[in-house]
Amino acid sequence: xxxxxxxxxxxxxxxxxxxxxxxxxxxxxxxxxxxxxxxxxxxxxxxxxxxxxxxxxxxxxxxxxxxxxxxxxxxxxxxxxxxxxxxxxxxxxxxxxxxxxxxxxxxxxxxxxxxxxxxxxxxxxxxxxxxxxxxxxxxxxxxxxxxxxxxxxxxxxxxxxxxxxxxxxxxxxxxxxxxxxxxxxxxxxxxxxxxxxxxxxxxxxxxxxxxxxxxxxxxxxxxxxxxxxxxxxxxxxxxxxxxxxxxxxxxxxxxxxxxxxxxxxxxxxxxxxxxxxxxxxxxxxxxxxxxxxxxxxxxxxxxxxxxxxxxxxxxxxxxxxxxxxxxxxxxxxxxxxxxxxxxxxxxxxxxxxxxxxxxxxxxxxxxxxxxxxxxxxxxxxxxxxxxxxxxxxxxxxxxxxxxxxxxxxxxxxxxxxxxxxxxxxxxxxxxxxxxxxxxxxxxxxxxxxxxxxxxxxxxxxxxxxxxxxxxxxxxxxxxxxxxxxxxxxxxxxxxxxxxxxxxxxxxxxxxxxxxxxxxxxxxxxxxxxxxxxxxxxxxxxxxxxxxxxxxxxxxxxxxxxxxxxxxxxxxxxxxxxxxxxxxxxxxxxxxxxxxxxxxxxxxxxxxxxxxxxxxxxxxxxxxxxxxxxxxxxxxxxxxxxxxxxxxxxxxxxxxxxxxxxxxxxxxxxxxxxxxxxxxxxxxxxxxxxxxxxxxxxxxxxxxxxxxxxxxxxxxxxxxxxxxxxxxxxxxxxxxxxxxxxxxxxxxxxxxxxxxxxxxxxxxxxxxxxxxxxxxxxxxxxxxx
Length: 784
What we know:
Layout lengths: L5 H13 L3 H8 L2 H4 L32 H4 L1 H5 L2 E7 L11 E9 L8 E8 L6 H9 L5 E9 L7 E8 L10 E10 L2 E11 L10 E8 L11 H7 L5 H9 L4 E5 L1 H8 L7 H10 L6 E3 L7 H6 L75 H5 L8 E2 L10 H7 L4 E4 L10 E2 L5 E2 L10 E4 L2 E5 L2 H11 L4 H20 L6 E5 L8 H11 L6 E2 L2 H6 L3 E2 L9 H20 L7 H14 L8 H19 L2 E4 L4 E3 L3 E10 L5 E9 L4 E3 L3 E5 L3 E11 L4 E10 L5 E12 L3 H38 L17
Parallel strand pairs: 8-9, 8-17, 8-18, 9-10, 11-12, 12-16, 15-19, 21-28
Antiparallel strand pairs: 1-2, 2-5, 3-4, 3-6, 6-7, 13-14, 15-16, 20-22, 22-26, 23-25, 23-27, 24-26, 27-28
Helix pairs in contact: 8-16, 14-15, 18-19, 18-20
C-alpha cells in the first residue's frame, strides 16, 4: 500500500476543519473539484485556497465568502493573534505622525501565508470608561482605516513584527484616548483582529485617582513546607527569583504580602543559611514599603473557613529541623534597621510616618543569644522564627473569587480584620435606567474608594478594570503585548481622571504567580510612575479612606476542591496522632503540618489538575507512613503451661525511634492477658516482646488480636491477628496420674504388709492351746 502524501494529509485536515458545521459542508461541496489538486507537491498554507475572495473589513464579513472555511479557520479557533502598540511606547500622540507596531503570533499548526496588516482608528474616541468598554468589547464598533503594510508569512509557532506608519492628521489630535484596531488579511480574508486603546500625553490629570498596588511576594507552589538551602541560594542570587521580585517592588508605592515560609526557611538554617539568603532577608527588613504577612505558605484561607476549621492553620513547630550548633551566633536574617511596628488595630492612624526607619544600630549579638535579650538560648522558638516587623498584621488576602458568606467574619475572628478582595468577589451594581428606558453604565461615573463595608466587616476591593490591565501587563510575554496592556492600563486611569476621581483611593493587585513575571512587574511599576494622571497611594491610605457599602458576591470554592482539602486535613490529623508513638513526635508531626500548608498554597488554584495529582501523592505517602509500624505475622503459638507469654515481633520501617505498648486480646477465656508490655523499637529495625498470659479454662484454639498503642493511648496501625493453641491442662492430668500411681504403689504395699501381719498373727493364734486342754505331744517322726 502506498503511503499517503503530505499534501493529501494536509488537505484532509483542512477538509475536516472546513466541514465542522453543516453550512461549511455545503460550501465545501461546491469545492470538491478543487480538492482534487491534492496531488500538487507544494504545501497548502492558511488561506491559500482562497483566491477570489473580495476584501473584508471584519472576520464576520468573510463568513459568507466561498472560501471562509479554509481562510478563517485560524481566526475562529484563536490560533492566530495580534498585538499592537505605538512603536517603543504605550502612550500615543494623535496629533503627530506615528508608527504602530503589530506583532503577529501564529499559534496554529499551519503555515500562515503572506498578507496585509491594516490599522484603523475608532470613530468615537474611547475617552471614558463606558466608551472604552464599548470599543474593546464590541467587535462591531466602527473604525476607519488609517494605514496598512505588507505582512510576511509566519511559520507555525512563529511570530513576526510589522510596522504600520500613520501620517499626521489621520488621527484626532484632541482625543485624550485613541482606539486602534489591527487586522490581518490573507488573500482578502480577515484571519485575526484585535482592538486596543492608548492615552495621549495630554490626558486629563486634574482628577487623578490615588492608586495603591498589592503584590504577593511568594515562591512557586510546591509540596514542601520549607525551602531548602540550595534553592534559597539560587533564588536569592543576583538574578534569582526572590531577588528579582524584591528589586521590582522595593521602595515603591506597593504593599507587599510576604509568605512567612520564606523568612522561616532562612532562619531555621542558622549559620548554615546561604549568605545571599541572609542578605536578602536583611534587605527585606529595610525597605520602605507597607509589608504584611500572607498565610504561611500562602495557604488558601477561604477554603479553611468553608470547611469550618476553628481558625487559620499555622505551623506548630520547627523543632525537627533545628540544631543548637547552628545558633551559636544567634538567629540569622534579623533586620539591622527594622521599620517601626505599626499598631495592627488602627488602620486610620497609619500614615507615611509608619514607614520611618529606626536609625539606632542593632547591638552586637551575644553568641548563642537567639532573641537578642542578652541570654543564651539553645534554638529559637516558633514565634521567634516567624516574627517580623510587619507594617500591619491584620490583613487577609484570600485567593481571587474564593470568599463565601461568613468567611469575612471567620477571618476577623482570627485577627485578620481587613480583607483584600478581588473584584469578582463583590457584586457589580445593576445598570441605571434613564427616563427613556435606556441603560446607563454605572462605571461611567467616578469610582468610589476601594475601602468597603461588607457584611459588617472591613475590606478593600481591587478595581476590576485596573487590576485586569495591570495583570495583563505583568503577564505579557513580549514587548508588544506589554505595551498594549500598559496602554489599556494608562487609558483606564485617564478615563477615571477625566471623570474627576481625585477623591478616590483605588486598589489594583498583581496575581499570584510565584514571581514568574518579576521582570514585567518592575517595568510596569516604572511605567506607572511616569503617568501624570495617576497618583501613588499606600495601602494604609486606601484602608483609611471612607468606606463604601458593598455586597459580597458569595463564591464558595468548588465542592471537589473542598472535599480534597478535607481529606488532606483529616490525613494530617491522623498522622499527628500517629506521631505520638515516636520518641520525638515533632520529627513527624511538624513537617506534616508544614507540608499540608504548602499543599493549600493559593497558587495551586491556577492548576487544579496538577494540584489534585500532588494532593493524591501526598495522601498516599501519609498512608504509607502510618503503615510503617506493624506487628509481624507469625505461625501458630503453642501455649502449654498455665503461666506463659505470647511473643510478638514489632517492625519499624520509619527513620524514627518509637515507643509502643503492645496489647493482646484473646478471642475466648482459654487465655487471660495479664497486661500491656512497653517496647522501644529503633529506626528501621525490629524488636520482640513477650506479653504475659495465663491459661484459663479448657484447651483449644484462640485468636489473639495484637494491637499497638502509643504511650498516650493512640492506637497505632491496624490490629494483627495471631493463632494460638492452648494445651495447658496436661500438667494437672499428669500430676493426677502420678499421684494416683504413687498412692496405688504405696497403698498396695501398705495393704500387703498389713495383710501379711494379720495372716502371721492368725497363724500364731491357731498354734496356742486353749486353757484347760491337755497338752499335745509332739509327734516323733521316728514313730512312723
